[in-house]
TrEMBL record, chains A, B:
Membrane-spanning residues: 24-43, 49-66, 78-99, 105-124, 136-157, 177-194, 214-234, 263-286, 334-356, 362-380, 400-428
Name of the protein in question: Sulfate permease
Domain STAS per the UniProt entry, residue ranges: 451-571
Domain of life: Bacteria
SUPFAM superfamilies: SpoIIaa-like
Key word Transmembrane helix present: yes
UniProt-listed InterPro entries: SLC26A/SulP_dom, SLC26A/SulP_fam, STAS_dom, STAS_dom_sf
Length: 580, 580
């Protein structure tokens, strides 16, 4: 119990000086690297920049205690920040204290939901989104996030959570365009994009892969330093270049978030969707990294840990957090060994907040916007789009619909549509299961599809193999299939349902089987079962179906054939071709 | 094309005098029997009583043209009426013209949705609700409908769409209690309940089963006549006994319903849920009756026909309609042969509206309430509850949750929760598929679960059979299963995935297979496939998975075993027990 909910007790006792030094080194790197990102994502969520720093302290400590991944780093994340802004925009005015309070409430709700889902082991909820839908959602969100920053990049004030709103905002406020801001923004963008590709060049200049890797990842902090210096040196703030400005030099105020019932009512659905998206992102990431180091994570405990992190965020006047890709990759590459690295990074961010925020005053918003835009590149998955198109047109359709809906109606609708489409697609597939009439391969105990193989069959016996579990979505289809088959074969006396691929018969399918049994009985046709799996048989025995069954339950199709077929009417195979 | 959308062209050419006389007879019976019900359901929906008559004219004609069931009778239906009231109650004030107009708009939206679903062949949507959930929904709705009528029965003015609201309404308005109304109401109730059970007594008195059947079903019309006479004779209207009152003596005004965008926006979701519930009720009913007469119906065309009926309802200032159980049973028992009977009944209702409504003036509402309460008895399914409990605790949990939610939050929430629970349950089941390591049954080409059978196996070869299609909900579980297995078996060199029960590999599962392939490769373990079904193989060839696959694709498990196992390491069976 203790180990389940507090994985820290597993690794802390064996924590030694060597691990400490590795974790400390990683924490220093992470602290430096993620400050710009933390500020940027707070702005993306419509919150004061300092909220991003707050979100990078206590939540990290909570994850140290509850998390099962050794290297996952939690904190603000782009898509979650965008969803936070979308959830709050209609309810409270941006920039007000009420807005910040509502963000904390959102983190609180998300935290409670995630923790409860963890306690009830609902980690499988993440499976409700198929990979193509998640990939489409991430790509479309990336584009939305990038376009949302075009205004900050060019000095144009705009907002909007759909592509149309954003483009309309850009078009109508075009006159706000500020040349100096654009120069800094586009300059930062060009620099950051260059840095991303600088790795090979740096290595050619003789650097080790590790060092060149760090320098390329340090792009944002370098851009921040240079642009801050420029703004300070040339007093560009006076020329309408927006800057981060004054940041309060204290630790996050600890307080219970607002629990106003009407606010909670409005935020329940957004909180659920944010939790879902955050969890899926986070757990995929944690699983990928655990696989690299041959470690294992527990999805249910990850839910609990993310819930704890969000509660910590809520109690420290912050915003919803989740496992962040860029943060985690830096942490992993810097050699973090345990979740303690996260707590050390939290300490680092606290020190920065207390002593170094005056340096951030002149940091231009346009540079942060550029760093957000560059970070969205990792979300775009054009290759996935192409692969899915080749592999399955239906999966591709779900993916495309998710992308289009996210563009047109925002991330929330995109997530809901994605879940709906994933499920609808699967249900549609399983609601018309494949089934085949089989016949005996002459001289053997094997039975194969009569359409594909040369088989022996008997017009009085139909051997029907159903290739799917029987459940509510296909129960009616099964009835239709059997009735149609019986209607076509007037000589029929026996129908054998071969259940080798039936892993489940739910209550709906049981009712259909009873209906089939009764209807066939009216036509003097007996219903038999064959190859019923053990667990399915155990469950059938809980009902009185087997008492009413007009026929028998056979162990194998061969037993059924031997017992039912009539030597006089059986037809020897006449087809002389045999395909697969 | 013509035959698909206008099934009338199939039966009309062979329509003869004999069929005509049967249909006419059924129409007369239906007209007489359903008048009280039509009035009652309109009141249940919060509409003027005459709306129920309007809903029993043009919609029936539309069904004659478009319907595929020979005996289904459309019209107002209890649950749909309750849902109509719930949908409109928050938006417009009951009793106003705007309320009636909104009801027509609801019918219009429902009609458009149903028609579109029919055109796009989305009849399988009905499969999204499992039988236990539908049964729970009907039972709970029945109780809600019955309690909603307690006020009318006792002369207490109350309203509410959840059990709590209703009981609170009864409690707070208890002082309205009207003794005379209660006498009529409870008297009618006792009479109707007695009539339902009078069948055996009447037959013992020498009546034929048909005649006694009709007399028992005529209960409501007899109760209506007697109570109307009493109210008229003793002028009970002056003693605060509520009556139907003046009914306009004209045919329904034909008009386009209000298409106010904000009204439509609010009604979209209720319209969808009403369509879903109405369709499920109607199509189950039609299928049951078609089965009795060895006819077939087309669910997709039924959607189209119900859509047409609702459009007809909308254009004639009426309310949402669907296939009605009680109406249909009367029609079927009265011997209707074709949908023409519906049109004749529509004519009958029109004649009643024009010439006989003055007779209805003194009909007490309490009697109508009693007839509604009695009609809900057919919705209660206590036996289903017990059966489901015995057969499957999970299905029972979904059923119970649907019932509780319907009581607490109303029918709309009940439907949505029902759909959600049905799906969640199924996904949960398939997200953890059964899988088994199999070994060779000595001396044969058969492979069975090593846990259950005496088999020959090889520590370097794992033969893993997965008993489920591989799709997004279980893709991650498959990865976990394989990794856990490999971690336990250090000697492993080959993993063979036996795919005989895999009917589908979707894009998510493909990614998981690729991840498994790569990860096993890291550990010098080869991944092979065996018994891949034809269509699955065809789809795999659309991706480059097979190019990267470290192992081979074998036709059968036996082929894989022969190629991979090592005579030196293979272990002959040592267990001497053999179970099923």
């Amino acid at each position: 119990m203790l180990k389940r909910y507090f994985p820290i007790v597993e690794w802390l006792p064996s924590y030694d000086r060597h691990t400490l030094s590795q974790d400390l080194f990683a924490a220093v790197i992470v602290t430096l690297m993620v400050i710009p990102q933390a500020l940027a994502y707070a702005l993306l969520a419509g919150l004061p920049a300092v909220t991003g720093l707050y979100a990078s302290m206590l939540p990290l400590v909570a994850y140290t205690v509850f998390g099962t991944s050794r290297t996952l780093a939690v904190g603000p994340m782009a898509i979650v920040a965008l969803m936070t802004a979308a959830a709050l925009s209609g309810i409270v005015a941006t920039g007000t204290v009420a807005y910040s309070e509502a963000a904390a409430t959102l983190a609180f709700l998300s935290g409670v939901m995630l923790m409860l889902m963890g306690v009830f082991r609902l980690g499988f909820f993440a499976n409700f989104l198929s990979h193509p839908v998640v990939s489409g959602l991430l790509s479309a969100s990336g584009v939305l996030i990038a376009t949302s920053q075009l205004g900050n990049l060019l000095g144009i004030s705009m907002s909007g959570f759909t592509l149309i709103e954003q483009l309309a905002g850009l078009a109508t406020h075009w006159q706000d365009f500020n040349g100096l801001t654009a120069l800094i923004g586009l300059g930062s963008l060009a620099f950051l994009m260059g840095m991303r590709r600088a790795g090979p060049t740096l290595r050619r200049l003789g650097m080790t892969a590790t060092l060149s890797g760090f320098i390329t990842k340090a792009g944002p902090i370098i851009a921040v330093m240079i642009s801050t210096l420029l703004v300070w040196a040339f007093d560009l703030e006076a020329h309408s270049v927006a800057v981060v400005g004054e940041i309060p030099r204290h630790l996050p105020p600890l307080a219970l978030p607002s629990l106003d019932p009407s606010l909670i009512g409005t935020l329940l659905m957004p909180a659920f969707l944010i939790s879902l998206v955050g969890f899926i992102e986070s757990v995929s990431l944690a699983q990928m990294l655990a696989a690299k180091r041959r470690q294992r994570i527990s999805p249910d405990q990850e839910l609990f840990a993310l819930g704890g992190s969000n509660l910590a965020a809520a109690l420290s006047s912050s915003m919803p957090v989740t496992g962040s890709l860029s943060r985690t990759v830096i942490n992993f590459d810097a050699g973090a060994r345990t979740p303690a690295a996260g707590s050390f990074a939290a300490l680092g961010v606290a020190l920065v907040t207390l002593y170094l925020t005056p340096l951030i005053h002149f940091l231009p918003i346009a540079t942060l916007a550029a760093s957000i835009i560059v970070s969205t590149f990792t979300l775009l998955d054009a290759r996935g789009l192409k692969r899915t198109w080749r592999y399955s047109k239906r999966d591709f359709a779900a993916m495309l619909a998710t992308i289009v809906l996210t563009f047109v109606s925002g991330v929330e609708v995109g997530v809901m549509a994605g879940v709906g489409l994933s499920l609808a697609l699967f249900l549609y597939r399983t609601s018309r299961p494949h089934s085949a009439l089989v016949g005996r391969v002459p001289g053997t105990e094997h039975f194969r599809n009569v359409e594909r193989h040369t088989t022996e069959h008997d017009p009085t016996v139909a051997l029907l193999r159903v290739d799917e579990s029987l459940y509510f979505a296909n129960a009616r289809y099964l009835e239709d299939t059997v009735y149609a088959m019986v209607a076509e074969r007037p000589a029929l006396k026996h129908v054998v349902l071969i259940s080798s691929a039936v892993n489940l018969i739910d209550a709906s399918a049981l009712e259909s089987l009873e209906a089939i049994n009764a209807r066939l009985d009216d036509s003097q046709v007996k219903l038999h079962l064959a190859e019923v799996k053990g667990p399915v048989m155990d469950q059938l025995k809980q009902s009185d179906f087997l008492d009413h069954l007009t026929g028998e339950v056979f162990l194998s199709t061969y037993h059924a054939w031997e017992a039912l077929h009539d030597e006089k009417t059986a037809v020897k195979p006449t087809r002389d071709t045999s395909s697969s």
